[in-house]
Amino acid sequence: MNDLLGDYPVIIEIPVAWGEMDAFGHLNNVVYFRYLESGRVAFLRALGDIEFMGGTGIGPILASVQCRFKAPVTFPDTLIVGTRLRDLGIDRFTMEHRLVSRQLGRIVAEGEGLVVAYDYSAGSKTPIPPEVRAALLALQGVAT
Amino acid sequence: MNDLLGDYPVIIEIPVAWGEMDAFGHLNNVVYFRYLESGRVAFLRALGDIEFMGGTGIGPILASVQCRFKAPVTFPDTLIVGTRLRDLGIDRFTMEHRLVSRQLGRIVAEGEGLVVAYDYSAGSKTPIPPEVRAALLALQGVAT
Amino acid sequence: MNDLLGDYPVIIEIPVAWGEMDAFGHLNNVVYFRYLESGRVAFLRALGDIEFMGGTGIGPILASVQCRFKAPVTFPDTLIVGTRLRDLGIDRFTMEHRLVSRQLGRIVAEGEGLVVAYDYSAGSKTPIPPEVRAALLALQGVAT
Amino acid sequence: MNDLLGDYPVIIEIPVAWGEMDAFGHLNNVVYFRYLESGRVAFLRALGDIEFMGGTGIGPILASVQCRFKAPVTFPDTLIVGTRLRDLGIDRFTMEHRLVSRQLGRIVAEGEGLVVAYDYSAGSKTPIPPEVRAALLALQGVAT
User: Fold this and answer.
1) Residue A72 CB neighbours (<10 A)
2) CA-CA-CA-CA torsion sign (B129, B130, B132, B136)
3) Residues 6+ apart with CB under 8 A from D3
4) Cβ atoms of residues B95 and B40 within 8 Å
5) Which residues of chain D lie closer than 8 angstroms to C25, CB-CB?
6) CA C22 → CA A21, C27, C72, C90, D112, distances in Å?
7) pLDDT class for B58, splitting at 50, 70, 90?
8) Residues of C at the B interface, defined by Cβ within 8 angstroms
């Protein structure tokens, strides 16, 4: 399964809970967004001690998120969530997620989240701080 | 259904979501605790402007919660959640909840929650402030 | 608020639960997808007695879903979820959702979901049955 | 931490998700019940191939569940959920759960669930089948 996640620098594993299946007997669509969120948080934490989420008053805001469902997931299973940087804009960046099932050995969902840098004191969008840009690119293995 | 909730001074209604059913096709047991929590919060809010949850540094902590399931619930339905004071101790009180199904016209679950007054600055349990005691008893219609 | 939802033939209201807020003190992003799902289910149920979800062996599968967050939501609030048909393809259609806050009197999120008609016995996508097409268009008020 | 779970024959680990924290910045009380459910399911699955949950028409129904909260949990953390048999009655049994935090190295919650054997064809409670009784006792290490 590792080749499915080769480009994803941040990888976490989440055991599927029985109670996350819905009346169709599959992992409910809403739960995938919890998994994406956990991937997103792991990615932001992997940026290191750059105070993007605290301290400076500038932090990430989730502007939108999307998930495409490729195959139904059932309990018991464990999903591997890979997260990578896709686009890096001035005041925003897009993360891309891939969910792989250990049980099925295949991609079961793909998602993406648009994150905007927000200046909480100013109450408006703001350019991504240089050290955050550098950390994002370093995490993704892009030479700067 | 009103006679089922006659003794419950705080009543809220919550529409059941399709996605809250699990693979057995019934409202999942975990969801009932969200409904109990909403009843609990409504009850605490009904105490009025007594700063039990903010300001004073003394607030309620949920020490335990329980639910007994009486009948399965399916979408579509709306649950009526009644909450009342059962026991009032020195530094704690117990709330009692009753969940009634609009669809079934019967009690589908009963629960209770033990709340302890906590002094956040001291980091320990503390007697319930007198104005909170008075508000609890007034809400329950107990003469003081 | 009604003018914000004029084009949305299916409208439901969902009370925000305190426990749906996350550590940022706002309605957690994952919860919006539960609300979208409830809108989607209400829309499909409004199609009437056409056995799209049972009986025929042909049913809707959620292929993807997206949400754009416009403004933070806090408890207490009630969200009005409007759902409408946007695109109707051969074997798929897109629903559009708008979430309006009663408390804020404004749009707080917009979403969309892509639904594909699936033949469970054949195990493949299939054209939307004519009576479902007709019901979709009728619900949206499109002359046929 | 192993000495805290010595008597618990079924043990699973669950990573805490950031989004499972509520506006108090702690793991929300409702989430504990998802963890208890996962422990319960793991326990029932550990009974082996005895068709308690399918096949025979006799299955377990959750009659009540309770949780006592001992210490707040915050992300990041992993909870170890131990489950054991406590009481074995004629048509019911009680499971006991202990939740231990890897981060805190201590018990953070304890719970219990009452499960009743239900005959779905008869629509009533029924004695626990002998092979299920034997499996329950064997799992708990009780000589029979």
Assistant:
1) 14
2) positive
3) none
4) yes
5) 23
6) 22, 6, 11, 40, 27
7) confident
8) 12-15, 17-19, 34, 37-38, 41, 45, 75-76
Q: How many CB pairs under 8 A join C and D?
A: 24
Q: What is the pLDDT along chain A (144 residues), one digit of tens a residue?
A: 668 999 999 999 999 999 999 999 999 999 999 999 999 999 999 987 666 655 678 889 999 999 999 999 999 999 999 999 999 999 999 999 999 999 999 999 999 999 999 998 888 999 999 989 999 999 998 866
**Preferred mutation among B10, B12, B13, B18 to probe C, highest tally of C CBs within 10 A:** B18
Q: Tell me which DSSP letter residue A6 carries.
A: T
Question: What average pLDDT score do residues D29-37 get?
Answer: 98
Cross-chain residue pair D21–C21, CB shorter than 8 Å: no
Across the interface, do D37 and A15 touch by the CB < 8 Å criterion?
Answer: no
Identify the CA nearest to B52 among candidates B139, B136, B109, B124: B136
**What does the buried/exposed string (b/e) look like for D94-133 if buried means 16 or more CB atoms within 10 Å of the residue's CB?**
bbbbbbbbeebeebbbbbbbbbbbbbeeeeeebebbeebb
Q: What is the pLDDT of residues D57-91, one digit of tens each?
A: 888 999 999 999 999 999 999 999 999 999 999 99
- The model's pTM is 0.95
Rg (CA), chain A: 16
The distance of C37 to chain B (nearest Cα, Å) reads: 7
Mutate one of B22, B26, B32, B75 to test the A interface: name it (highest A CB count within 10 A).
B22
Chain D positions in Cβ-Cβ contact with residue A13 (cut-off 8 Å): 15
CB-CB neighbors (< 8 A) of A28 in chain C: 37
**DSSP E strands: which ranges in C45-105?**
58-69, 78-88, 92-101
Which residues lie across from D100 on neighbouring strands? Answer: D80, D107
Question: What's the helix, strand, coil split of chain D in %, to 5?
Answer: 25, 40, 35
Question: CA B143: distance to chain centroid?
Answer: 22
pLDDT higher than threshold 70 for residue D53: no
Domains of chain C with bracketed CATH: 2-140 (3.10.129.10)
What is the Cα–Cα distance from B97 to B107, expressed in whole angstroms?
A: 11
Q: Do C15 and B14 touch (CB under 8 A)?
A: yes
Q: How many CB atoms lie within 10 A of CB C101?
A: 22
For the beta carbon of residue D144, count every other beta carbon within 10 angstroms.
Answer: 7
Q: Give D12-27 pLDDT, tens digit per residue.
A: 999 999 999 999 999 9
Rounded CA-CA distance B141/B107 in Å is 23
Could you count the other beta carbons within 10 Å of the beta carbon of residue D75? 19
CA-based nearest residue to C18, from D37, A65, B33, B8: B33
| ipTM here | 0.94
